[in-house]
Amino acid sequence: MQAERCLIVIPAYNEEDNVARVIREIRANDVYYDLVIVDDGSTDQTAKRARAAGEQVLSLPFNLGSAGAVQTGFKLAVVQEYDYVVHFDADGQHDPRDIRPIIETLKRDGYDVVIGSRVLGSGAEDLSASKKLIIAFFCWLIRRSTGQVITDPTSGLRGLSRRAFAHYARMGSYPEDYPDADILLHMIRSGLRVTEIPANIRRRMAGRSQFVGLKGLYYVAKMLVSVTTVLTTRRRGVDRVEDNHFDLRVAPVHYGLPPTNCG
Amino acid sequence: MACRQLTAGKLNERNTLVWMTGAITSLSLWAFPQAVAWIADWLEIAEVFTLVALVSTLILLGLLLQQAVELSLLQVRLREVAQQLAVLQRQTAQSRAELQGGNSQPQTEMAGER
Q: Does B114 reach chain A within 8 Å, measured CB to CB?
């Protein structure tokens, strides 16, 4: 039986100070899965430093945002027939020691999505008061609407099975930015099996968080709209993915977008 | 003006029709004030100007919404194209490296790299 393949997707935007260190740390922890840095239209040396560290790089022609970069990684994983994908941040907040437990949980227990939770693990104490409030609100919302308890809905450390990432690789099926509670709600409502394991989330090694000032306010407003859309959209199951071919004529399946006709 | 934009290829037929419908409706309200007064009476609106303002605002909002929908669709498609481009570039570089026999890390410049 062919060994199951896993791809670690690291979206990176202007992370030249962190990316090489993150890659070295992953490899130093004996994590030998395939790794791809998705350079999200960086204007610095992110791509060059990632390449110099010996890893494959996907370069987007312009900035699409974290979700767009992650979705690009999903597409690569479908085309290259990976079985699992782990989303790992390039800012040094995620601990490489959490990668293997996520993959093992995906393989062993058959879950579609495994989230690395800082609330179950460590790192929750470093959150700002406003972020804690936001997390508490989304926890309540997910529990209220699906009955499932998720302790860290904003965690970016996630592993996905092929069934999950192949679905969200499709055009229009993944949020434009900040895929947090809204996409989790959609995953649960679509019938994907979601679970959490403890994880260690650290402070950023360098650089600046994107959730400061007006961007933080935009995040909250955008999430409220997005969550409302998910809750009011008719439930649809996740389709089986029979092939690994991408077609621009595939209709958007999420967020109420009408079918396209590019042909 | 819309027709000139259409013939110059800067505006497509669908958007031209939408724009012209909105423009003709708005201008008709100004061109035929008696009709406006009649409609205001029928709808029991005391001030004719209120009706004119309401209808004009609704037309503008409708046009803006139509443009917003178009923009959203274009953004989704553009995102898809950019993502597929990145994946295809990577696959092309890999295939080239395999053909050249051995170098697993192609040194080609990718879009956006500095």
A: yes
Residue A177: CB atoms within 10 Å: 17
B61 to chain A, any CB pair closer than 8 A? The answer is no
**What are the C-alpha distances in Å from A190 to residues A114, A239, B11?**
15, 10, 40
Burial B17-32 (b: 16+ CB within 10 A, else e): ebbeebeeebeebeee
Q: Which structure tokens are listed for A194?
A: 């979601």
Q: Flag whether pLDDT at B109 surpasses 50.
A: no
**pLDDT tens string A37-55:** 999 999 999 999 999 999 9
Tell me whether B100 touches chain A (CB under 8 Å).
no
- Give the separation between CA A77 and CA A34, rounded to whole angstroms: 10
The pTM is what? Answer: 0.81
User: What's the pLDDT tens digit per position in A133-156?
Assistant: 888 888 999 999 899 999 999 888
- Kindly list the residues from chain B whose CB atom is less than 8 angstroms away from the CB atom of residue A79: 87, 91
Nearest-neighbour CA in chain B from A151: distance (Å):
31
User: b/e map of A96-133 (b: 16 or more CB within 10 Å)?
Assistant: bebbeebbebbbeeebbbbbbbbbebebbeebeeebee
Per residue in B31-42, pLDDT (tens digit) is 887 877 888 888
Please give, rounded to a whole number of angstroms, the shortest distance from the CA of A117 to a CA of chain B.
Answer: 29
SS3 state at B98: helix
pLDDT band at B19 (very low <50, low <70, confident <90, very high): confident
d(CA B94, CA B96): 5
Q: Spell out which residues of chain A touch residue B110, defining contact as CB-CB under 8 Å.
A: 39, 47, 57, 59
Tokens of B37: 């007064």
Closest Cα in chain A to B88: A76
The average pLDDT across A119-146 equals: 84
Which of A18-32, A173-187, B1-15 ranks highest by mean pLDDT?
A: A18-32
Evaluate whether A80 touches A162 at the Cβ level (below 8 Å).
no
Contact A47 B113 (CB under 8 A): yes
